[in-house]
Specification:
The complex is a heterodimer. By secondary structure, chain A is mainly α. Chain A is about 35% helix and about 5% strand. Chain B has a single domain, classed as Amidase signature (AS) enzymes (Alpha-Beta Complex), CATH 3.90.1300. The chains are: A mainly alpha, B alpha/beta.
Chain lengths: ~100, ~500
């Protein structure tokens, strides 16, 4: 099993939108390596033709009747927002200059 | 009168309130006073609000006075793990990212208990987003074990277990994703149950790993746990994985408490090396006790259980990395670094780095790795195959026996700080409880004695097939009654916080 590098952790942090600092990257690279080595034993156990289970219950799609139900009011939905403007969530700039 | 009310079981307190001997307000006041007394040391609660609690209690007394037909626990106080949404109290999952958050709706568990007339004492501490086995991952400080304040109360529902063990609440709710009800119940000397997956609703439960998360009860005895489980269980159209079938008759089973003729399987793989000697001693004694009460005991092998912990630490982080993507600093919760120059993506990454603690970050990164292109089949895919093997092991075992038993946790409560620097050592606390979460069946932990070497509680785990939760309660109640007959006292009477 190849060791997990600091660069790999930095890439994973970018994918998961976590602005980790240098210490965190170093620390996590070592820990992740240890954890992955320990959990890699699933690969030996899972050899052969075994169907995967994503879930405990044998359920397919579950639908509710397509009927209108009361929902949250705009005031309720916006009550915990970090910033609000004109009954909307106010967010930082989404598109970059080059887009 | 305060101590007298607090000493009652939840069932007795509910009966006394129904008979008009005690009001819901008196019960709430007695417990609020007890909370004020115990909290400086125990720190089980993240939020207590005397006025809100008393207003709820007054409303229950009024509903009863108006002739409303209320359930057996009406007027009895309950503490909620801070992972269930409540409209009248903050809900934080013990995370900075949700500090002060007020949800706009109630979880099904909280709504149903409100309807049944239970009075909410407050919200309990937990490992952040339910990730941990000691409650040390809370962003708001650790909770202490009432049996020994230098030790952890278990986790992730450690605030709930400590509150009930310190007599700060007669009942509490928790969630069990890999053992987060059963392990804290075991190390605090309580009864804790993980219902069948789909038997209790996840609506309004802040998600950690959706295919595993299961709400369940904590109580000081088996019957009280059963009454609480019945009060919040049952089909919920708002949870697409909720089972549309009658609730297993757990209270009836708790009253029956007989194991004559029941076939009990001792799981060979959940024992031996790595287990504390005193835990194994008490476990062996409870197996002999079951045999002496007429149960037929056999050894059962579930070979894939040896790989359950590894599969869990791929599946749970994978689901968590996806679930926690919702904390994006846009619609609710913390937002930092929004100075007008940064993009939404930068604000998101800064907020998540500041708002999440080390264990949550570790699991998000681990899950993101396991789900990455090129690694998906080797890690997440293999773990899902192991999940199938574990389900097959349970199915094969339940062809020959009615229930399976094991210790609930490999050790008694460990000292605060002992495992915080070593994630793998912390993960081992869930060794015995994880297989049940992966398969989705029911299990319960019941106290089975104190370990001779440290005088701390040991739990017996009873596992039953899906929707046969009542079998686990039957066995738990029989063990509880036999131990009470033998010692002449309730289990918690040996605790420093006994009333």
């Amino acid at each position: 099993m190849s060791a997990i590098t600091r660069d790999e952790v930095a890439h994973l942090a970018r994918l998961s939108r976590l602005a980790l600092n240098e210490d965190e990257l170093d620390h996590l690279a070592a820990q992740l390596d240890e954890i992955i080595s320990a959990v890699a034993k699933v690969q030996q156990a899972a050899e052969g033709d075994i169907p995967p289970s994503s879930h405990a219950l044998p359920l397919a799609n579950v639908h509710r009747p397509d009927e209108a139900r009361p929902g949250l009011t705009p005031e309720q939905a916006l009550a915990a927002a970090p910033a609000v403007e004109d009954q909307r969530f106010r967010v930082p700039q989404i598109l970059g200059e080059e887009e | 009168m305060g101590a007298e009310l607090i000493r009652m079981t939840a069932a007795e307190l509910g009966s006394a309130i129904a008979a008009g001997q005690v009001s819901a307000v008196q019960a709430a006041e007695a417990y609020l006073d007890r909370v004020a007394l115990a909290e400086p040391e125990v720190n089980a609660f993240l939020h207590v609000d005397r006025e809100t609690t008393l207003a709820q209690a007054r409303a229950v007394d009024e509903r009863r006075a108006a002739g409303e037909d209320l359930g057996p626990l009406a007027g009895v106080p309950v503490a909620h793990k801070d992972v269930f949404t409540t409209t009248d109290m903050p809900t934080t999952a013990a995370s900075r990212i949700l500090e002060g958050y007020r949800p706009p709706y109630d979880a099904t568990v909280t709504a149903r208990l409100r309807e049944a007339g239970l009075v909410v004492l407050g919200k309990t501490n937990m490992d952040e987003f339910a990730m941990g086995s000691s409650t040390e991952n809370s962003a708001f400080g650790p909770t202490r074990n009432p049996w020994d304040a230098s030790r952890v109360p278990g986790g992730s529902s450690g605030g709930s277990s400590a509150a009930v063990a310190a007599f700060e609440a007669p009942l509490a709710t928790g969630t069990d994703t890999g053992g987060s009800i059963r392990q804290p119940a075991a190390v605090c000397g309580l009864v804790g149950a993980k219902p069948t997956y789909g038997g209790s609703s996840r609506y309004g439960l802040i998600a950690f790993a959706s295919s595993l998360d299961t709400p369940g009860p904590f109580a000081r005895n088996v019957l009280d746990a059963a009454l609480l489980q019945e009060a919040f269980s049952g089909h919920d159209p708002r949870d697409s994985t909720s089972i549309d079938a009658p609730v297993p008759p757990v209270a009836e089973a708790a009253r029956r408490a007989d194991v004559a003729g029941l076939r009990v399987g001792v799981v060979k793989e959940l024992s031996g090396e790595g287990y504390q000697a005193g835990v194994l001693t008490r476990f062996q004694e409870s197996v002999e006790l079951l045999e002496s009460m007429g149960a037929k005991v056999v050894e059962v092998s579930c070979p894939s259980f040896d790989t359950a912990l590894a599969a869990y630490y791929l599946i749970a982080p994978s689901e968590c990395s996806s679930n926690l993507a919702r904390f994006d600093a846009m619609r609710y919760g913390l937002r930092t670094g929004d100075d007008g120059t940064r993009s939404a993506e930068e604000v998101m990454a800064l907020t998540r780095a500041e708002g999440f603690g080390p264990e949550v970050k570790r699991r998000i990164i681990l899950g993101t790795y396991a789900l990455s292109s090129g690694y998906y089949d080797a890690y997440y895919g293999s773990a899902q195959q192991v999940r199938t093997l574990i389900k097959r092991d349970f199915e094969a075992a339940f062809e020959g026996v009615d229930v399976l038993v094991s210790p609930t946790a490999p050790t008694t409560a460990f000292p605060l700080g002992e495992r915080t620097g070593d994630p793998m050592a912390m993960y081992l606390a869930d060794l015995c409880t994880i297989p049940t979460n992966l398969a989705g069946n029911a299990a319960l932990s019941v106290p089975c004695g104190l370990a001779p070497e440290d005088g701390l509680p040991v739990g017996l785990q009873v596992m039953a097939p899906a929707m046969a939760d009542d079998r686990a309660y039957r066995v738990g109640a029989a063990v509880e009654a036999a131990l009470r007959d033998r010692s002449g006292a309730d289990f918690l009477s040996g605790s420093p916080y006994a009333v």
